[in-house]
Design a protein that fits this description.
This protein is of the alpha/beta class and 257 residues long. It folds into two domains: 194 residues, Alpha-Beta Complex (2-enoyl-CoA Hydratase, Chain A, domain 1), CATH 3.90.226.10; 50 residues, Lyase 2-enoyl-coa Hydratase, Chain  A, domain 2 (Orthogonal Bundle), CATH 1.10.12.10. It is globular, with a radius of gyration of 19 Å. The protein starts with 5 loop residues before the first strand and ends in a 7-residue tail after the last helix. Helix content is 48%, strand content 16%. The strands form two sheets. The protein has a six-stranded mixed β-sheet with strand order 1-2-3-5-7-10, sandwiched between helices. A four-stranded mixed β-sheet has the order 4-6-8-9. Strand 2, helix 1 and strand 3 form a beta-alpha-beta unit. Bound molecules: acetoacetyl-coenzyme A (CAA). Acetoacetyl-coenzyme A (CAA) binds next to helix 2, strand 6 and helix 4.
């Protein structure tokens, strides 16, 4: 791997970003947040984007947290700026119009777990370790962990994790709903290939609308959210994708999206 802090590759419109600081277990420092923001500029401007996968370089860590050596000397005001930067970057990742998947290939701690939580779902290798150990450093999660973790796994389990700082393995992460699937590390690449092909085979606007309905709907009351779904469902019938998708079914052929 080169010296780029974020490596980028692509298959079938799925962009794979690899956080590349393996000597520091891919810990997120300011330079890395800048590199991620630059990648987001490109992803947000890419109309052909079908999905994003984010992972860590090496076979030991996804991301072992925000960079402790950089945070060590921060004043309270600087810490607020650092947190705001991390939060804004992760919000942009979360708001990408396509599915964003964390491919957790090892330690996924602190800011790393927060990065995974900003993704639409996570898939983990069986050696992955998760946790929000910030309290052991005398701080709390600063990139959204106290808010996205309870929304993902429920408040009681989130409180357990953020107040004890205990680490959990991939199987426990699966059981509590922090990850969707667990597999041997060697199978992660095949997972990405499968995901890329699945997304490439679906109506691109339909995939974007499905994500929008879930995300925007969760921020509304149920009746408003159901009305939003009805609007997006109707909108699908105003475009070409619905004619191609349903036409292909009736003609017994593969749709060409
Ligand atoms: N920040 C900076 N450097 C880190 C790091 C981090 N979060 N995590 C690991 N590293 C560095 C280590 O300092 C070490 O560097 P050197 O070789 O230069 O000494 C290198 O990565 C390898 O790490 P270890 O030697 O510690 O590896 P290990 O296998 O013995 O332990 C580990 C692995 C359990 C993940 C351990 O590195 C660890 O506990 N890391 C810190 C995890 C953590 O507390 N994360 C939360 C950070 S706070 C945060 O993220 C705040 C927020 O919400 C924004």
């Amino acid at each position: 791997m080169s010296d780029n802090l974020i490596e980028r590759s692509e298959r079938h419109g799925l962009v794979c970003l690899t956080v590349n600081r393996p000597k520091a277990l891919n810990a997120l420092n300011s330079a890395l947040l800048d590199a991620l923001a630059a990648e987001l500029d490109a992803l947000e401007a890419d109309p052909g984007l079908r999905g994003v996968v984010i992972t860590g370089a090496g076979d030991k860590a996804f991301v072992a947290g925000a960079d402790i050596t950089e945070m060590r000397e921060l004043s309270a005001a600087q810490a607020r700026d650092f947190a705001q930067r991390g939060l804004a970057t992760l919000k942009r990742l979360e708001r990408l119009p396509v599915p964003v998947v964390a491919l957790v290939n090892g330690f996924c701690l602190g800011g790393g777990c927060e990065l995974a939580l900003a993704c639409d779902w996570a898939v983990a290798s069986d050696n992955a370790i998760f946790g929000q150990p910030e309290v052991a450093l005398g701080v709390i999660p600063g990139f959204g962990g106290t808010q996205r973790l309870p929304r993902r796994v429920g408040p009681a389990m989130a409180l357990d994790l953020v107040t004890t700082g205990r680490k959990i393995d991939a199987q426990e992460a699966l059981r509590i709903g922090l990850v969707n699937q667990v597999m041997p590390q060697a199978e992660l690449d095949a997972y990405v290939e499968r995901l890329a092909k699945q997304l490439a085979g679906n109506g691109p606007q339909a995939v974007r609308s499905a994500k929008q309905a879930v995300h925007d709907g969760l921020e509304q009351d149920l009746d408003s959210a159901l009305a939003l779904e009805a609007s997006l469902f109707a909108l699908a019938f105003a475009g070409d994708e619905q004619r191609e998708g349903m036409g292909a079914f009736v003609d017994k052929r593969k749709p060409n999206f």
